[in-house]
Amino acid sequence: MARDLLLEVGAEEIPASFIGPALDDLKRVITERMAEARLKHGEVRTFGTPRRLAVWVKDIADAGEDIVKEVLGPSAKAAFDAQGKPTKAAEKFAEGLKLTVDQLGRATTPKGEYVSARVEEKGRVAADILKDALHAAVHGINFRKSMRWGDVDMSFARPVQWLVALLGGDVLPVVFGDVTSGRSTRGHRFLAPDAIELKAPADYEATLEKAHVVADIAKRRAQLVEKVKAAAAKAGVQVLEDESLVDQVTNLVELPSPVVGTFEERHLDLPPEVLVQEMKSHQRYFSLVDGAGKLQPKFIAVSNTPVRDEQLSLRGYQRVLRARLADGRFFFDEDRKTPLIDRVEKLGRVVWQGQLGSYLEKVERFRTLALWLAEQSGRAGDAATIERAATLAKADLVTGMVGEFPELQGVMGREYARAGGEPDAVALAIAEHYLPRGAEDALPTQDPGAFIGIADRLDSLCGIFAIGKAPSGAADPFALRRACIAIIRLVLGRGYRFSLSAAVDESLRLLAPKIANAKRKAGEPAPREQVLEFFRGRLKALWGEQHRTDVVEAVLAAGFDDLVAAQKRMEALSLIVGHADFQPLAAAFKRVVNIVEKQGRDVQGGETNPQKLVDEPERNLHAAFTQARGAVSGLVRSDDYAGALREITSLKPAVDTFFDKVMVMAEDKALRENRIRLLVEIGALFNQVADFSKIQAETASA
Description:
With 702 residues, the chain is an alpha+beta fold. It has 5 domains: 3-63 and 125-211, 2-Layer Sandwich (Alpha-Beta Plaits); 67-121, no CATH class; 219-337, no CATH class; 354-546, no CATH class; 579-694, Isoleucyl-tRNA Synthetase, Domain 1 (Orthogonal Bundle), CATH 1.10.730. Helix content is 49%, strand content 13%. It has 26 helices and 18 strands. Strands 2-3-1-7-8 form a 5-stranded antiparallel beta sheet. A hairpin with a 5-residue loop joins strand 15 (286-289) and strand 16. The mean pLDDT is 92. InterPro entries: DALR_anticod-bd, Gly-tRNA-synth_bsu, Gly-tRNA-synth_heterodimer. It catalyses: tRNA(Gly) + glycine + ATP = glycyl-tRNA(Gly) + AMP + diphosphate. Pfam families: DALR_1, tRNA_synt_2f. It is found in: Cytoplasm.
């Protein structure tokens, strides 16, 4: 009879950002262990609050499934002598499996014939499987930071207070430190502090709700959003949307209870971003706006308990915020006393990266690179704005406000630039060079900020790769993956046309004094190749979300030096690849590629000699190719890759006839090499769009 499983780890307040990853770890380990033991089960749910992490697995079988498996023993030659009698090796193998030699069989493998046996492996009972699984799960959570307490010789995010481990109505023995599992959970710390016994896992969620705890994260989040919006509407305002803040507050409370507070209206003359950041970062308050999106002198704080004396509670919330806003005003007023340009020199005392120098050195590099990018892209008209904005781009890092709120870098640079009389275009570029900050963030609205942002990130990528600190596994301390994706989004979103490899070369040239003595592992590719391969990986991941994997591979194999062109090629190929007549074209191209790869390297360069084309099919192919080459080149120059593909497709009949009627590998060397040269030229024509040999034949007509 199937039973449900419940594991709950109760602790002192767990940091909000730890809860989601910890639940993922618990769920992963438990489900993996059940899968390994062939233990069938139903739905798996997780629950989490600041005081608990829980996993509920429904309909667990009584035991793992039985299986019969074939076990290989010694080779047949070792198991039986020349007369066919079993040797000690066979006897020992049978004895180990509790079988007789007569019960052994034989199995043929790529390495030869071996003795084998069919063995039945009984599934373990669920309780035994789950005891091990829960122990591994509780002890295997990877917290970003953990702590020890008392005499407990192990660590957790916060001290563990209780454990619940139930299989149906039975308690499973799980121990963590000095805490042993039972069936007692806890309700809300203040509203239901006493222990609560659970009869079965199915009672868990409802029992906690009666004890003033909303354990389901999604349900608690929805309640939080609904209550916050209702409180805002009652106050005649709207909530400034902030999904990350909603997620954070959801995991700070077990029973959300919002209240609306106010702050002094005079603070509205501070930049809105300062006010929002003061409320969000330190207090986890929601900012409020009017119908036009203008910030209002009100906020919403979320309590973990229903507020009995709202005025008393509000006085506390408002007093703390008043102090924070006073600090913000002090930083803002003090920072504006020193123009940004006077702060630039101080960047020489702020280290960007030990081997790569100070922020001042970084600014000098990416300023030059940004101007180069603008010129290469044919948009050098903003050179003066780019130069000035790049010079000032990092100056706000040495201000009091950014020192207190690093999230405001760029924003405060914009405000201080305006206060110092810099042109609006310069101020805007300072702020926008940080965009996009994330996957959903907007792109810069003007070229100067975009070019500075690309240059800044490319300097980081090239510098970090050059000193041998590239990302490895999940570790990416310099956020290079995010930087690379941002560059790609900027280039494609703004439509910039320049050579990516040349940009990498220019960045590495500017970094040369810093990376000249950098040590690299033996056999490791040069930084240039590493950076370009890194871009290739990010492009593959990004484009693979919307396009077929083989199409992405085909386009990348043909080159991605011009990112905009590569994207246009991919979009064109994606449209044609599903057509019924494309598969034969891809097959024909693969024949071209195979011959070129096998024979082309032995053929001297040069173009096809029409005088040496003796058979009519090869002359027809050369004529068709010559005509198509001119058309394709013109279409590629105008970015009409769909048209180029149509021209390439028109070659298919001539290619097919050539392969059917002409012997490419003729005995006459001159004839053979001339035919191979023709195929090399045709392959190069195809490769202006994509490497069709990468297209999967089984899906080409899908």
